Amino acid sequence: MQNIETAANVIRTLSSHPELGYYYFFKSFWKKVETEPLAENWHIKTMCQEAQEVATRVFNRENKEYDLVINVSPGMSKSSIFVKFFIPWCWSQDPTLRFIVGTNSDDLAKDLIERAKTTIDSELYKAAFADTVQIPKGGGGITKITNSAGGKIYIATPKSKRIGIHAHIILVDDPQTREMVYSETERAASNNWLFRTLSTRKVKKSMTPTILVMQRLHEDDATANALKKWKRVRHLRLPATNEYDIFPPEYEEFYTDSSEVGIKVMDPLQMPIEEVRELESTMDALDSSGQLGQDPRPIGGNIIKEDWLSQTFPLGKMLRDAEIENRSIHWCGTLDGAYTQDANNSATAILVYAIIGGQLYLRDYRNWWKEFPDLVTDIPPFVSSAGLGSTGTLFVEPKAIGKSLVQTLRKESKPRINIVEDPIPATGGTANGKLQRVLDSTPFLRGMNVFFSDTVDWGPFIDQCTIFPNGKHTDLVDCLTMAIEKSTNGGDITDSSMWEVLKIDV
Length: 506
Known about the structure:
- With 506 residues, this protein is an alpha/beta fold.
- It has 19 helices and 16 strands.
- The strands form 3 sheets. It has a 7-stranded mixed beta sheet with strand order 3-4-2-5-6-1-7, with helices on both faces.
- Mean pLDDT is 87; it is low at 495-506.
Protein backbone atom coordinates (compact mmCIF):
# COMPACT_ATOMS: atom_id res chain seq x y z
CA MET A 1 0.00 0.00 0.00
CA GLN A 2 2.85 2.30 0.87
CA ASN A 3 4.45 1.73 -2.53
CA ILE A 4 1.28 2.48 -4.51
CA GLU A 5 0.63 5.66 -2.51
CA THR A 6 4.20 6.80 -3.07
CA ALA A 7 3.92 6.09 -6.78
CA ALA A 8 0.57 7.90 -6.91
CA ASN A 9 2.05 11.01 -5.27
CA VAL A 10 4.93 11.00 -7.73
CA ILE A 11 2.71 10.58 -10.79
CA ARG A 12 0.37 13.37 -9.64
CA THR A 13 3.32 15.73 -9.42
CA LEU A 14 5.02 14.66 -12.65
CA SER A 15 1.78 14.66 -14.68
CA SER A 16 1.35 18.37 -14.09
CA HIS A 17 4.76 19.32 -15.48
CA PRO A 18 4.10 22.17 -17.96
CA GLU A 19 6.10 20.60 -20.81
CA LEU A 20 6.72 16.95 -20.01
CA GLY A 21 3.70 16.07 -17.85
CA TYR A 22 2.09 13.81 -20.39
CA TYR A 23 5.40 12.17 -21.32
CA TYR A 24 6.01 11.29 -17.66
CA PHE A 25 2.43 10.03 -17.34
CA PHE A 26 2.77 7.93 -20.49
CA LYS A 27 5.98 6.24 -19.36
CA SER A 28 4.68 5.59 -15.84
CA PHE A 29 1.43 3.99 -16.92
CA TRP A 30 2.98 2.03 -19.75
CA LYS A 31 4.95 0.10 -17.12
CA LYS A 32 1.77 -0.59 -15.15
CA VAL A 33 -0.67 -1.38 -17.96
CA GLU A 34 1.30 -2.88 -20.85
CA THR A 35 2.76 -6.38 -20.83
CA GLU A 36 5.68 -5.53 -23.13
CA PRO A 37 8.44 -3.11 -22.08
CA LEU A 38 8.41 0.31 -23.74
CA ALA A 39 10.87 0.50 -26.63
CA GLU A 40 11.65 4.14 -26.01
CA ASN A 41 12.66 6.18 -29.02
CA TRP A 42 12.79 9.94 -29.58
CA HIS A 43 9.42 10.00 -31.36
CA ILE A 44 7.61 8.90 -28.18
CA LYS A 45 8.65 12.02 -26.32
CA THR A 46 8.09 14.21 -29.38
CA MET A 47 4.53 13.04 -29.96
CA CYS A 48 3.68 13.24 -26.25
CA GLN A 49 4.87 16.85 -26.22
CA GLU A 50 2.87 17.61 -29.38
CA ALA A 51 -0.27 16.17 -27.78
CA GLN A 52 0.29 18.04 -24.52
CA GLU A 53 0.78 21.37 -26.28
CA VAL A 54 -2.57 21.01 -28.05
CA ALA A 55 -4.39 19.86 -24.91
CA THR A 56 -2.99 22.55 -22.61
CA ARG A 57 -4.72 25.30 -24.55
CA VAL A 58 -8.01 23.41 -24.14
CA PHE A 59 -7.44 23.08 -20.36
CA ASN A 60 -7.13 26.87 -20.28
CA ARG A 61 -10.09 27.29 -22.67
CA GLU A 62 -7.88 29.19 -25.09
CA ASN A 63 -8.38 29.26 -28.83
CA LYS A 64 -6.42 26.58 -30.62
CA GLU A 65 -3.28 27.53 -32.51
CA TYR A 66 -3.73 24.75 -35.05
CA ASP A 67 -5.07 21.27 -35.73
CA LEU A 68 -2.51 18.48 -35.58
CA VAL A 69 -1.84 15.88 -38.31
CA ILE A 70 0.70 13.10 -37.75
CA ASN A 71 1.68 10.45 -40.30
CA VAL A 72 3.76 7.68 -38.79
CA SER A 73 4.43 4.01 -39.55
CA PRO A 74 2.50 1.17 -37.86
CA GLY A 75 3.92 -0.17 -34.62
CA MET A 76 5.01 3.26 -33.39
CA SER A 77 2.49 3.37 -30.47
CA LYS A 78 0.38 6.11 -32.05
CA SER A 79 -2.94 4.77 -30.68
CA SER A 80 -1.44 4.45 -27.22
CA ILE A 81 -0.03 7.98 -27.35
CA PHE A 82 -3.10 9.72 -28.75
CA VAL A 83 -5.95 7.69 -27.21
CA LYS A 84 -5.14 5.02 -24.64
CA PHE A 85 -3.03 7.16 -22.31
CA PHE A 86 -3.79 10.63 -23.65
CA ILE A 87 -7.45 10.79 -22.62
CA PRO A 88 -6.81 9.52 -19.07
CA TRP A 89 -3.99 12.05 -18.71
CA CYS A 90 -6.23 14.86 -19.96
CA TRP A 91 -8.90 13.87 -17.45
CA SER A 92 -6.30 13.93 -14.68
CA GLN A 93 -5.81 17.61 -15.53
CA ASP A 94 -9.42 18.48 -16.43
CA PRO A 95 -12.05 15.77 -15.85
CA THR A 96 -14.80 17.82 -17.53
CA LEU A 97 -13.37 17.38 -21.02
CA ARG A 98 -15.46 15.65 -23.66
CA PHE A 99 -13.76 13.64 -26.42
CA ILE A 100 -14.90 12.23 -29.73
CA VAL A 101 -12.72 9.32 -30.87
CA GLY A 102 -13.16 8.67 -34.57
CA THR A 103 -11.85 5.75 -36.58
CA ASN A 104 -12.73 3.55 -39.58
CA SER A 105 -14.85 0.83 -37.94
CA ASP A 106 -16.94 0.04 -34.88
CA ASP A 107 -14.61 -2.77 -33.79
CA LEU A 108 -11.52 -0.57 -33.87
CA ALA A 109 -13.38 2.26 -32.13
CA LYS A 110 -14.50 -0.04 -29.33
CA ASP A 111 -10.96 -1.36 -28.97
CA LEU A 112 -9.63 2.20 -28.61
CA ILE A 113 -12.16 3.11 -25.95
CA GLU A 114 -11.42 -0.10 -24.06
CA ARG A 115 -7.73 0.79 -24.10
CA ALA A 116 -8.45 4.13 -22.46
CA LYS A 117 -10.70 2.47 -19.89
CA THR A 118 -7.94 -0.04 -19.05
CA THR A 119 -5.71 2.85 -17.96
CA ILE A 120 -8.50 4.52 -15.98
CA ASP A 121 -9.32 1.25 -14.22
CA SER A 122 -5.70 0.58 -13.27
CA GLU A 123 -4.75 0.53 -9.60
CA LEU A 124 -2.19 3.33 -10.01
CA TYR A 125 -4.64 5.64 -11.81
CA LYS A 126 -7.31 5.14 -9.17
CA ALA A 127 -4.79 5.78 -6.40
CA ALA A 128 -3.47 8.93 -8.05
CA PHE A 129 -6.66 10.51 -9.40
CA ALA A 130 -9.61 9.03 -7.49
CA ASP A 131 -10.46 12.48 -6.18
CA THR A 132 -10.49 13.86 -9.72
CA VAL A 133 -11.75 11.10 -12.03
CA GLN A 134 -14.38 8.54 -11.15
CA ILE A 135 -16.42 6.33 -13.48
CA PRO A 136 -19.84 5.94 -11.87
CA LYS A 137 -21.78 2.68 -12.14
CA GLY A 138 -23.10 2.42 -15.65
CA GLY A 139 -20.66 5.08 -16.91
CA GLY A 140 -18.43 2.67 -18.82
CA GLY A 141 -20.39 1.64 -21.88
CA ILE A 142 -19.40 0.11 -25.21
CA THR A 143 -19.72 3.28 -27.25
CA LYS A 144 -19.00 5.88 -24.60
CA ILE A 145 -17.50 6.45 -21.18
CA THR A 146 -18.79 9.09 -18.77
CA ASN A 147 -17.04 10.22 -15.60
CA SER A 148 -18.56 11.79 -12.49
CA ALA A 149 -17.37 15.29 -13.47
CA GLY A 150 -19.27 15.24 -16.76
CA GLY A 151 -16.36 14.25 -18.97
CA LYS A 152 -17.20 11.91 -21.82
CA ILE A 153 -15.50 9.71 -24.40
CA TYR A 154 -17.71 9.05 -27.42
CA ILE A 155 -16.76 6.87 -30.37
CA ALA A 156 -17.68 7.61 -33.98
CA THR A 157 -17.13 6.01 -37.39
CA PRO A 158 -18.13 6.98 -40.94
CA LYS A 159 -21.22 4.80 -40.46
CA SER A 160 -22.29 6.45 -37.20
CA LYS A 161 -25.89 7.60 -37.57
CA ARG A 162 -25.52 10.43 -35.09
CA ILE A 163 -22.95 11.89 -32.75
CA GLY A 164 -24.50 12.82 -29.45
CA ILE A 165 -22.00 15.27 -28.00
CA HIS A 166 -19.97 18.36 -28.78
CA ALA A 167 -16.33 17.72 -27.97
CA HIS A 168 -13.52 19.74 -26.44
CA ILE A 169 -11.01 17.58 -28.38
CA ILE A 170 -11.58 15.38 -31.44
CA LEU A 171 -9.18 12.45 -31.86
CA VAL A 172 -9.13 10.66 -35.21
CA ASP A 173 -7.05 7.48 -35.47
CA ASP A 174 -6.86 5.72 -38.86
CA PRO A 175 -10.17 7.03 -40.27
CA GLN A 176 -9.70 5.14 -43.56
CA THR A 177 -8.52 1.76 -44.75
CA ARG A 178 -6.84 0.95 -48.05
CA GLU A 179 -10.06 -0.63 -49.31
CA MET A 180 -12.03 2.49 -48.43
CA VAL A 181 -9.76 4.94 -50.26
CA TYR A 182 -9.67 2.86 -53.45
CA SER A 183 -13.44 3.10 -53.68
CA GLU A 184 -14.30 6.62 -54.83
CA THR A 185 -17.68 6.38 -53.10
CA GLU A 186 -16.31 5.18 -49.75
CA ARG A 187 -13.41 7.63 -49.89
CA ALA A 188 -15.79 10.52 -50.44
CA ALA A 189 -18.10 9.28 -47.67
CA SER A 190 -15.30 8.98 -45.12
CA ASN A 191 -13.90 12.39 -46.04
CA ASN A 192 -17.35 13.96 -45.75
CA TRP A 193 -17.80 12.33 -42.35
CA LEU A 194 -14.52 13.75 -41.09
CA PHE A 195 -14.70 17.23 -42.61
CA ARG A 196 -18.45 17.87 -42.59
CA THR A 197 -19.88 15.82 -39.73
CA LEU A 198 -17.16 15.59 -37.09
CA SER A 199 -16.10 19.16 -37.77
CA THR A 200 -19.51 20.39 -36.56
CA ARG A 201 -19.37 18.52 -33.24
CA LYS A 202 -17.25 21.02 -31.35
CA VAL A 203 -17.84 22.84 -28.07
CA LYS A 204 -16.37 25.91 -29.74
CA LYS A 205 -14.98 25.92 -33.25
CA SER A 206 -12.20 28.33 -32.41
CA MET A 207 -11.11 26.24 -29.41
CA THR A 208 -11.72 22.54 -30.20
CA PRO A 209 -8.70 21.00 -31.96
CA THR A 210 -8.70 17.89 -34.10
CA ILE A 211 -5.76 15.50 -33.87
CA LEU A 212 -5.51 13.21 -36.90
CA VAL A 213 -3.04 10.29 -36.81
CA MET A 214 -2.79 7.83 -39.70
CA GLN A 215 -0.63 6.28 -42.38
CA ARG A 216 -0.83 7.80 -45.86
CA LEU A 217 -3.03 5.87 -48.26
CA HIS A 218 -4.02 8.02 -51.22
CA GLU A 219 -3.60 11.43 -52.84
CA ASP A 220 -7.16 12.20 -51.70
CA ASP A 221 -7.04 10.59 -48.24
CA ALA A 222 -7.92 12.27 -44.95
CA THR A 223 -4.44 13.74 -44.51
CA ALA A 224 -4.50 15.34 -47.97
CA ASN A 225 -7.89 16.90 -47.26
CA ALA A 226 -6.86 18.10 -43.81
CA LEU A 227 -3.79 19.86 -45.18
CA LYS A 228 -5.96 21.50 -47.82
CA LYS A 229 -9.09 22.36 -45.84
CA TRP A 230 -7.98 23.19 -42.31
CA LYS A 231 -6.83 26.77 -41.94
CA ARG A 232 -3.93 26.19 -39.57
CA VAL A 233 -2.27 22.78 -39.45
CA ARG A 234 0.83 21.46 -37.75
CA HIS A 235 1.95 18.47 -39.79
CA LEU A 236 4.44 15.79 -38.76
CA ARG A 237 5.45 13.25 -41.40
CA LEU A 238 7.74 10.60 -39.92
CA PRO A 239 8.56 7.88 -42.47
CA ALA A 240 10.41 4.72 -41.45
CA THR A 241 13.56 5.83 -43.29
CA ASN A 242 15.05 8.99 -44.71
CA GLU A 243 14.47 7.65 -48.23
CA TYR A 244 11.21 9.59 -48.04
CA ASP A 245 10.63 13.23 -47.14
CA ILE A 246 10.63 13.99 -43.41
CA PHE A 247 8.61 16.91 -42.11
CA PRO A 248 9.52 19.10 -40.40
CA PRO A 249 12.89 18.45 -42.09
CA GLU A 250 14.86 19.22 -38.92
CA TYR A 251 13.56 15.96 -37.43
CA GLU A 252 15.96 14.06 -39.69
CA GLU A 253 18.70 14.83 -37.17
CA PHE A 254 16.98 12.38 -34.80
CA TYR A 255 17.07 9.55 -37.35
CA THR A 256 19.73 6.90 -36.75
CA ASP A 257 22.31 5.54 -39.21
CA SER A 258 21.55 2.03 -40.39
CA SER A 259 23.71 -0.75 -41.79
CA GLU A 260 22.95 0.57 -45.28
CA VAL A 261 25.15 3.45 -46.39
CA GLY A 262 23.26 6.75 -46.40
CA ILE A 263 20.03 5.26 -45.03
CA LYS A 264 18.77 6.38 -41.64
CA VAL A 265 15.84 4.91 -39.72
CA MET A 266 13.32 6.63 -37.50
CA ASP A 267 13.21 3.93 -34.83
CA PRO A 268 16.20 1.54 -34.68
CA LEU A 269 14.56 -0.43 -31.86
CA GLN A 270 11.08 -1.14 -33.24
CA MET A 271 11.89 -0.87 -36.93
CA PRO A 272 15.58 -1.30 -37.81
CA ILE A 273 16.49 -1.31 -41.49
CA GLU A 274 16.39 -5.13 -41.62
CA GLU A 275 12.76 -5.10 -40.50
CA VAL A 276 11.92 -2.29 -42.91
CA ARG A 277 13.28 -4.33 -45.81
CA GLU A 278 11.47 -7.45 -44.63
CA LEU A 279 8.19 -5.53 -44.49
CA GLU A 280 8.83 -4.08 -47.94
CA SER A 281 9.29 -7.60 -49.30
CA THR A 282 5.80 -8.56 -48.11
CA MET A 283 4.08 -5.38 -49.35
CA ASP A 284 3.28 -4.05 -52.78
CA ALA A 285 4.63 -0.64 -53.78
CA LEU A 286 1.46 1.16 -52.68
CA ASP A 287 1.42 -0.28 -49.16
CA SER A 288 5.15 0.19 -48.74
CA SER A 289 5.11 3.86 -49.72
CA GLY A 290 2.01 4.63 -47.67
CA GLN A 291 2.66 2.69 -44.49
CA LEU A 292 6.44 3.02 -44.35
CA GLY A 293 7.14 6.14 -46.41
CA GLN A 294 4.07 8.20 -45.43
CA ASP A 295 3.73 9.13 -49.09
CA PRO A 296 0.97 7.88 -51.43
CA ARG A 297 3.48 7.90 -54.29
CA PRO A 298 6.06 5.09 -54.27
CA ILE A 299 9.64 6.01 -55.12
CA GLY A 300 9.93 5.76 -58.90
CA GLY A 301 6.18 5.56 -59.44
CA ASN A 302 3.33 3.14 -58.76
CA ILE A 303 2.28 0.82 -61.56
CA ILE A 304 3.60 3.26 -64.16
CA LYS A 305 7.25 4.04 -63.45
CA GLU A 306 8.81 7.46 -63.95
CA ASP A 307 11.64 5.91 -65.96
CA TRP A 308 9.14 4.67 -68.54
CA LEU A 309 8.07 8.27 -69.18
CA SER A 310 11.51 9.86 -69.46
CA GLN A 311 12.09 10.06 -73.22
CA THR A 312 11.63 13.26 -75.21
CA PHE A 313 11.72 14.08 -78.89
CA PRO A 314 12.46 17.38 -80.70
CA LEU A 315 9.09 18.45 -82.06
CA GLY A 316 10.51 21.29 -84.14
CA LYS A 317 12.98 19.02 -85.88
CA MET A 318 10.30 16.39 -86.47
CA LEU A 319 8.06 18.95 -88.20
CA ARG A 320 10.90 20.45 -90.27
CA ASP A 321 12.20 17.06 -91.38
CA ALA A 322 8.71 15.91 -92.29
CA GLU A 323 8.27 19.00 -94.47
CA ILE A 324 11.66 18.52 -96.14
CA GLU A 325 10.96 14.83 -96.80
CA ASN A 326 7.41 15.64 -97.94
CA ARG A 327 5.97 13.32 -95.32
CA SER A 328 2.76 13.84 -93.38
CA ILE A 329 2.43 13.22 -89.70
CA HIS A 330 -0.99 11.92 -88.76
CA TRP A 331 -1.79 13.58 -85.43
CA CYS A 332 -4.75 12.17 -83.52
CA GLY A 333 -6.22 12.73 -80.09
CA THR A 334 -7.99 11.03 -77.20
CA LEU A 335 -10.51 12.79 -74.98
CA ASP A 336 -11.97 11.83 -71.61
CA GLY A 337 -14.81 14.27 -70.95
CA ALA A 338 -16.42 15.83 -67.89
CA TYR A 339 -18.48 18.98 -67.55
CA THR A 340 -17.57 20.91 -64.43
CA GLN A 341 -15.65 23.92 -63.18
CA ASP A 342 -15.03 22.24 -59.83
CA ALA A 343 -11.42 21.03 -59.62
CA ASN A 344 -12.49 18.50 -56.97
CA ASN A 345 -14.32 16.61 -59.71
CA SER A 346 -13.03 14.90 -62.83
CA ALA A 347 -11.55 17.07 -65.57
CA THR A 348 -11.84 16.96 -69.34
CA ALA A 349 -8.51 15.60 -70.53
CA ILE A 350 -7.23 15.76 -74.11
CA LEU A 351 -4.06 14.16 -75.46
CA VAL A 352 -2.69 14.76 -78.98
CA TYR A 353 -0.32 12.12 -80.34
CA ALA A 354 1.05 10.35 -83.39
CA ILE A 355 1.86 6.65 -83.82
CA ILE A 356 5.11 6.13 -85.71
CA GLY A 357 6.91 2.82 -86.04
CA GLY A 358 4.67 1.27 -83.41
CA GLN A 359 5.65 3.92 -80.87
CA LEU A 360 3.70 6.77 -79.35
CA TYR A 361 4.75 10.41 -79.78
CA LEU A 362 2.88 12.79 -77.49
CA ARG A 363 2.65 16.35 -78.77
CA ASP A 364 0.43 18.26 -76.34
CA TYR A 365 -2.34 17.85 -73.78
CA ARG A 366 -4.92 19.76 -71.78
CA ASN A 367 -6.61 19.07 -68.45
CA TRP A 368 -9.63 21.39 -68.20
CA TRP A 369 -12.34 21.95 -65.63
CA LYS A 370 -14.92 23.61 -67.86
CA GLU A 371 -18.65 23.57 -68.46
CA PHE A 372 -20.09 22.10 -71.66
CA PRO A 373 -20.43 25.35 -73.67
CA ASP A 374 -16.83 26.32 -72.96
CA LEU A 375 -15.60 22.88 -74.00
CA VAL A 376 -17.45 23.12 -77.30
CA THR A 377 -15.79 26.48 -77.91
CA ASP A 378 -12.26 25.63 -76.73
CA ILE A 379 -11.64 22.07 -77.93
CA PRO A 380 -11.54 22.70 -81.74
CA PRO A 381 -8.91 25.49 -81.71
CA PHE A 382 -6.69 23.57 -79.26
CA VAL A 383 -6.60 20.30 -81.21
CA SER A 384 -6.23 22.22 -84.48
CA SER A 385 -3.24 24.17 -83.16
CA ALA A 386 -1.73 20.87 -81.98
CA GLY A 387 -1.75 19.56 -85.54
CA LEU A 388 -4.97 17.57 -85.53
CA GLY A 389 -6.26 18.77 -88.90
CA SER A 390 -8.60 17.29 -91.45
CA THR A 391 -6.65 14.03 -91.60
CA GLY A 392 -6.61 13.45 -87.85
CA THR A 393 -9.26 11.99 -85.57
CA LEU A 394 -10.25 12.88 -82.03
CA PHE A 395 -11.35 9.71 -80.22
CA VAL A 396 -13.75 10.32 -77.33
CA GLU A 397 -14.26 7.87 -74.49
CA PRO A 398 -17.63 6.19 -75.11
CA LYS A 399 -19.77 7.27 -72.20
CA ALA A 400 -22.83 9.50 -71.89
CA ILE A 401 -20.81 12.71 -71.61
CA GLY A 402 -18.71 11.76 -74.61
CA LYS A 403 -21.73 10.97 -76.76
CA SER A 404 -23.27 14.43 -76.36
CA LEU A 405 -19.90 16.10 -76.91
CA VAL A 406 -19.35 14.17 -80.13
CA GLN A 407 -22.81 15.06 -81.44
CA THR A 408 -22.42 18.75 -80.66
CA LEU A 409 -18.88 19.15 -82.01
CA ARG A 410 -19.81 17.39 -85.24
CA LYS A 411 -22.39 20.09 -85.83
CA GLU A 412 -20.76 23.18 -84.34
CA SER A 413 -16.96 22.84 -84.18
CA LYS A 414 -14.95 25.68 -85.66
CA PRO A 415 -12.57 24.80 -87.16
CA ARG A 416 -14.11 21.49 -88.16
CA ILE A 417 -12.59 18.41 -86.59
CA ASN A 418 -13.12 14.72 -87.19
CA ILE A 419 -14.49 13.47 -83.88
CA VAL A 420 -15.76 9.96 -83.13
CA GLU A 421 -16.56 7.74 -80.18
CA ASP A 422 -13.64 5.48 -79.38
CA PRO A 423 -14.30 2.23 -81.25
CA ILE A 424 -12.20 0.22 -78.78
CA PRO A 425 -14.57 -1.36 -76.25
CA ALA A 426 -14.50 0.44 -72.94
CA THR A 427 -13.44 -1.58 -69.90
CA GLY A 428 -15.73 0.52 -67.73
CA GLY A 429 -15.36 3.57 -65.53
CA THR A 430 -14.95 1.60 -62.33
CA ALA A 431 -11.70 1.55 -60.39
CA ASN A 432 -11.10 -2.06 -61.50
CA GLY A 433 -11.80 -1.20 -65.15
CA LYS A 434 -9.33 1.68 -65.12
CA LEU A 435 -6.78 -0.47 -63.34
CA GLN A 436 -7.07 -3.21 -65.92
CA ARG A 437 -6.51 -0.76 -68.78
CA VAL A 438 -3.33 0.47 -67.11
CA LEU A 439 -2.13 -3.06 -66.42
CA ASP A 440 -2.77 -3.96 -70.06
CA SER A 441 -0.67 -0.94 -71.10
CA THR A 442 2.37 -1.71 -68.96
CA PRO A 443 4.19 -3.95 -71.48
CA PHE A 444 4.05 -1.12 -74.02
CA LEU A 445 5.21 1.43 -71.44
CA ARG A 446 7.91 -0.82 -70.04
CA GLY A 447 9.22 -1.23 -73.58
CA MET A 448 10.05 2.52 -73.61
CA ASN A 449 7.63 3.18 -76.46
CA VAL A 450 6.35 6.60 -75.33
CA PHE A 451 8.04 9.89 -76.26
CA PHE A 452 7.19 13.41 -75.11
CA SER A 453 7.58 16.59 -77.14
CA ASP A 454 10.25 18.94 -75.85
CA THR A 455 7.98 22.01 -76.12
CA VAL A 456 5.47 21.18 -73.37
CA ASP A 457 5.65 20.92 -69.57
CA TRP A 458 4.66 17.30 -69.03
CA GLY A 459 5.17 17.37 -65.26
CA PRO A 460 1.46 17.33 -64.25
CA PHE A 461 0.74 14.64 -66.84
CA ILE A 462 3.55 12.38 -65.60
CA ASP A 463 2.62 13.03 -61.96
CA GLN A 464 -0.93 11.81 -62.56
CA CYS A 465 0.31 8.71 -64.37
CA THR A 466 2.94 7.69 -61.83
CA ILE A 467 0.69 8.14 -58.79
CA PHE A 468 -2.12 6.02 -60.26
CA PRO A 469 -4.14 4.37 -58.69
CA ASN A 470 -3.46 6.47 -55.59
CA GLY A 471 -4.25 9.76 -57.33
CA LYS A 472 -7.41 11.78 -57.01
CA HIS A 473 -7.77 12.20 -60.79
CA THR A 474 -7.26 9.68 -63.60
CA ASP A 475 -8.41 11.62 -66.69
CA LEU A 476 -4.98 11.95 -68.28
CA VAL A 477 -4.21 8.31 -67.48
CA ASP A 478 -7.37 7.34 -69.37
CA CYS A 479 -6.26 9.36 -72.39
CA LEU A 480 -2.85 7.71 -72.36
CA THR A 481 -4.23 4.17 -72.17
CA MET A 482 -6.69 4.95 -74.99
CA ALA A 483 -3.79 6.12 -77.16
CA ILE A 484 -1.74 3.05 -76.27
CA GLU A 485 -4.67 0.83 -77.26
CA LYS A 486 -4.64 2.57 -80.64
CA SER A 487 -0.94 1.92 -81.09
CA THR A 488 -1.12 -1.76 -80.09
CA ASN A 489 -4.44 -2.65 -81.71
CA GLY A 490 -4.62 -0.41 -84.72
CA GLY A 491 -1.12 -0.45 -86.14
CA ASP A 492 0.74 2.60 -87.40
CA ILE A 493 -1.27 5.68 -88.23
CA THR A 494 1.74 7.49 -89.66
CA ASP A 495 4.03 5.96 -92.28
CA SER A 496 6.57 3.95 -90.24
CA SER A 497 9.38 5.18 -92.44
CA MET A 498 8.93 8.48 -90.62
CA TRP A 499 10.96 6.81 -87.87
CA GLU A 500 14.01 6.98 -90.10
CA VAL A 501 13.76 10.77 -90.00
CA LEU A 502 13.50 10.83 -86.20
CA LYS A 503 15.89 8.23 -84.93
CA ILE A 504 19.00 10.09 -86.11
CA ASP A 505 18.83 12.68 -83.31
CA VAL A 506 16.34 11.30 -80.77
